[in-house]
Amino acid sequence: MGRRNSIVYLVALMLIGLMLGPVIYIIVGGFRTNSQITTYPAGLPDPWVTGNYTEILASDTFWRQVGNSTIAAVVTTVAVVTLGVMASYVLARYSFRGRGAMYALFAAGLMFPATVAITPLYILVKNLGLVNTLPGVILPQIAFGLPTTIIILVPFLRAIPKEIEEAAAIDRCSRLGFFWRMVLPLSVPGLITTGILAFIGSWNSYLLPLFILNDQDSFTLPLGVQAFASQYSVDTAKVLAFTSLSMIPALVFFSLFERRIVGGLTGAVKG
Amino acid sequence: MQAPPPVRPRRRGIGWAQRLEIVALSGPAILVFAGFVIFPVLMAAYYGFYRWKGFGRPTNFVGLDNYVTILQDTLFHEALWHNFQIVVLSLVLQGPVAVGLALLLNRRMRGQSVIRVLIFVPYVISEVITGTAWALILQTNGAGNDVLRSLGLGGLAADWLANPRLAIWSLMFILVWKYVGFAVILFLAGMQNIPDELSEAAAVDGASFWQTQRHITLPLLGPTIRIWAFLSIIGSLQLFDLVYIIWGQYVSSTAGTSTMATYMVTEGRNAGNYGYGNAVAVVLFVISMIIALIYQRFVLRRDTEGALTEGR
């Protein structure tokens, strides 16, 4: 048993190395100089330099992109979760004709990420006069975030025991009052799961901003990273520092709420 | 995918108050979804019949010309072939690795929760970061070849990104690295729904660890694996970000990694041919839809209560 366990740990360790290697390479590489990187591409910093990081932290461009990404992610998250939980409540606890069709409509959306619709979406956003603006990115992101949110939330809301709803009805609580006072508080874990997924999705989003945002001032971080990487292609160390700074928020968010995400997926995928 | 049945069927027909609630609660979501998902997809079908540079209304109706061009373009054939390879290789490479890892991580062991978090890290970082980092690591004078040399495997050092025989495998490696964590988490979630009593009973009957996994865990994990495979196929068909970031619009086709989506962006938007780009979008949509329907019909049908919905 002991030998088998040590094999398991060895495999696990190698796995962690492989998964984290590139991430560590980015972070540590940001503490090196370009000549260090050229001489020993995979070496450790010697000496450690902080100049790459401090220069980026002092630049307006970086913080403007952080701001744009934050606004886009926060607004998308709030809107997706709000609209999603309202629609999910209807799908989970009302019975009416067309309910199945409505569910199928959102579920079908899950099959088609924004890639397929990106060209006409760009034209639509252009006609609305929203090119180079954050709403031009946020509105489509809300729409494409709804399917995942609804698919995860509907089972969540259905799991609330009907006894609670009956008790609320006896206490003369309307269905909307029940939604507001009971359903929302009880479904907070599901709301957090879907919120995190929406936030990370928006924070990392590339294709949509690539089409909609052409003006440097409106860039979100992923576009910024790419523009920076091509602009300073010879300054590898700085590119690495920029890249590692831009991944911090998603990583922090994820490690804080990892359990919620896994829990939410467990609820959605009943095997 | 089927809608779950309602919690409590109401006996009487629904009154106007309830109708109003339904409209008020679900209306905003439906409006946004219809406006920014369904409407653009329909418009793609319309624009696809025109030769159009994206300014004003499309006027130059060309019928099916765009589609004929697409279906005759060898660049598109190549992209389609790459997509096909990516679909198959993703399933073949990621599936077994993810099942193995999930089995490994499903055992009680110290540090288990830490490993679960770490394996998910690549999934959480953005495609742009993944692409930028791997492009730097895999270039000829990058860290990847440096590590190989320091391990005494300098003979294996290669041009991982530009060599057309290697590039698709580099892409597959990066895709596995990025997305295997998602599969593992899904499979772990599926395994947690398998009652412990089953493996305990098997242990009482003298089944070995591997027999238990082979005859109990894997079959019961079937539905989860089939859903994952579905999501993986759809994702592979529409792959864009990583290829476009690492190889760019021109190199991807010579390196043998272009996809239908990168073809769509290169030939459509970047070339200013919006009508053509929309036609490519329609082709991509139809191919994805046909595969999705076939898969639902023949594979997911076994899981009677539909894909991502829960049963009762």
UniProtKB/TrEMBL annotation, chain A:
Its main location: membrane. Residues 66-257 form the ABC transmembrane type-1 domain. PROSITE patterns: ABC_TM1 (PS50928). The chain crosses the membrane at residues 7-28, 71-91, 103-125, 137-157, 178-200, 239-257. It holds the Pfam family BPD_transp_1. InterPro entries: MetI-like (IPR000515), MetI-like_sf (IPR035906). CDD domains: TM_PBP2. It is found in: Cell membrane. It is a multi-pass membrane protein. Keywords: Cell membrane, Membrane, Transmembrane, Transmembrane helix, Transport. Belongs to the binding-protein-dependent transport system permease family. This is Carbohydrate ABC transporter permease.
